[in-house]
């Protein structure tokens, strides 16, 4: 029996109406569409120029470039582990990696705004992963889903999209600070970074609209090469910052791996619990929503619109998150880009296995990750942010008891630079508007408890009582 036949039999490829060749091509397609995370995740977790005094994940004795290359290795390993579990345990063509939005929450809200040490943030991700594993194992998914208000669940994706977009636009110099209006348009015509970023952004949008496989990574690399070419030819001075200050790559991840253990020291229970809850909430519903969306594209859903045996891919996500935290990265989640592989005909875990193997193969390009300037890598944030806005159509805008919580969730996220605050605003407003509309029965005891908890959190957080744990 040859390798092809062995794979076909193990993953029931023919039973699912597919072929080994189709599964391999689907895996390649999925990998190309999500491979940008190898560059973007390290950039987000390492560099935070918009929050004064915060450097993200910084390790004594290592340059930011070296930390970035460590994070690239960790990103690859976490993606490979989670996607391999998806392949063999769930037998689904879904790929996983550290999630956009979740890494932004990790870096900008937890480490940045709250001042929590990055080791403690990793500890929160680790605990979130363990809770996810336990709840998935006992089949508590339905109970969890019912606790969170539906309009908030439907609005989270759009809010995160806006949040990612503004982070990306700031890195490109397109959106800048303003004392009068808070934000405004930068001096685009006189800023080489802004000019190159705009060219790269619209080039990437064009590729994405044309359904070119790997459009985002092509756009990132193309923008980086444009910046390098303009600098090398003397058209733009080196001081303009179009070229990254790359450093020698390192594959030694020991400073990151296991760092979460030290994060349990001097933990402030209340704030730590809220961080864990927020990580869990965003991860759980982002993954569940993605699985249903991709499952719909592949015809996997049953007559009730549910994905059969969804607990298995959810478990793969939970295991990936836990392993990722142990290695040193933020929450792992299922990628909507998996739909591209499904559309190519991928129907089994063989597609996921191909993605996992390609991630491992990308370890060879880790040195290139530190050569990508931040403005180029953040193109991915704007592109994905814009695409995530389409989730807004799932909200029942003609019902004010949905409009208000959803609107608060979406608006508060980018304006406060916090996914957690947006979710909290939606959860607090939901029972209030439901009671005002006379729809008391629509609010559960769990939803009231969450609303009260977040009101207390806002009081503690904004009154200065919640001190950063250093």
Automatic annotation (TrEMBL):
Q: Which Pfam families does the annotation name?
A: Xan_ur_permease (PF00860)
Claim: Secreted is one of the keywords in the record: no
GO cellular component terms, A-Z: plasma membrane
| InterPro entries in the cross-refs | Azg-like (IPR045018), Azg-like_bact_archaea (IPR026033), NCS2 (IPR006043)
Q: Which positions, given as ranges, span the membrane?
A: 24-45, 70-90, 97-115, 121-140, 152-176, 188-209, 216-236, 256-282, 350-369, 375-393, 400-423, 443-460
Location of the protein in the cell:
Cell membrane
Kindly list the GO molecular function terms attached to this UniProt entry.
purine nucleobase transmembrane transporter activity
What keywords is this UniProt entry annotated with?
Answer: Cell membrane, Membrane, Transmembrane, Transmembrane helix, Transport
Membrane topology per the entry is: Multi-pass membrane protein
Q: Answer whether the UniProt record assigns the keyword Ribonucleoprotein to this protein.
A: no
Q: Which family does it belong to?
A: Belongs to the nucleobase:cation symporter-2 (NCS2) (TC 2.A.40) family. Azg-like subfamily.
What this protein is called in its record is: Xanthine/uracil permease family protein
Q: Which organism is it from?
A: Haloferax volcanii (strain ATCC 29605 / DSM 3757 / JCM 8879 / NBRC 14742 / NCIMB 2012 / VKM B-1768 / DS2)
């Amino acid at each position: 029996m040859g390798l092809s036949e062995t794979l076909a039999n193990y993953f029931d490829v023919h039973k699912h109406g597919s072929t080994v060749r189709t599964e391999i091509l689907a895996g390649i397609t999925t990998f190309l569409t999500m491979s940008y995370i190898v560059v973007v995740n390290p950039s987000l977790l390492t560099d935070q120029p918009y929050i004064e005094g915060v450097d993200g994940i910084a390790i004594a004795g290592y340059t930011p470039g070296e930390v970035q290359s460590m994070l690239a290795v960790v990103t690859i390993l976490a993606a490979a582990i989670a996607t391999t579990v998806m392949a063999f345990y769930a037998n689904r063509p879904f790929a996983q990696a550290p999630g956009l939005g979740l890494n932004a929450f990790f870096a900008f809200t937890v480490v940045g705004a709250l001042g929590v040490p990055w080791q403690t943030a990793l500890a929160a991700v680790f605990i979130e992963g363990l809770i996810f594993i336990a709840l998935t194992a006992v089949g508590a998914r339905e109970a969890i889903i019912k606790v969170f208000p539906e309009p908030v669940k439907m609005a989270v994706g759009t809010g995160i999209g806006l949040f990612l977009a503004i982070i990306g636009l700031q890195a490109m110099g397109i959106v800048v600070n303003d004392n009068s209006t808070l934000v405004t348009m930068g001096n685009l015509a006189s800023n080489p970074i802004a000019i190159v970023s705009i060219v790269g952004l619209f080039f990437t949008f064009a590729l994405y609209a044309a359904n070119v496989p790997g459009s985002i990574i092509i756009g990132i690399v193309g923008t980086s090469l444009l910046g390098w070419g303009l600098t090398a030819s003397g058209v733009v001075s080196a001081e303009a910052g179009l070229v990254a200050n790359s450093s020698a790559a390192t594959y030694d991840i020991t400073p990151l791996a296991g760092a979460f253990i030290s994060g349990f020291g001097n933990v402030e229970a209340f704030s730590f619990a809220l961080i864990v809850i927020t990580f869990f909430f965003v991860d759980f519903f982002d993954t569940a929503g993605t699985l249903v969306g991709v499952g719909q594209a592949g015809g996997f859903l049953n007559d009730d619109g549910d994905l059969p045996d969804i607990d298995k891919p959810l478990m793969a996500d939970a295991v990936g998150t836990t392993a990722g935290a142990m290695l040193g990265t933020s929450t792992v989640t299922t990628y909507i880009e998996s739909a591209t592989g499904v559309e190519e005909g991928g129907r089994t875990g063989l597609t996921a296995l191909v993605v996992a193997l390609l991630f491992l193969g990308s370890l060879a390009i880790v040195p290139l990750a530190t050569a990508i300037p931040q403005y180029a890598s953040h193109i991915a944030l704007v592109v994905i942010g814009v695409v995530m806005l389409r989730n807004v159509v799932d909200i029942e805008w003609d019902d004010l008891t949905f409009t208000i919580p959803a609107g608060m969730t979406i608006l508060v996220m980018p304006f406060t630079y916090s996914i957690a605050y947006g979710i909290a605003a939606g959860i607090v407003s939901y029972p209030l508007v439901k009671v005002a509309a006379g729809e008391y029965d629509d609010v559960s005891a769990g939803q009231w408890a969450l609303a009260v908890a977040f009101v207390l959190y806002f009081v503690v957080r904004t009154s200065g009582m919640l001190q950063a744990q250093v």
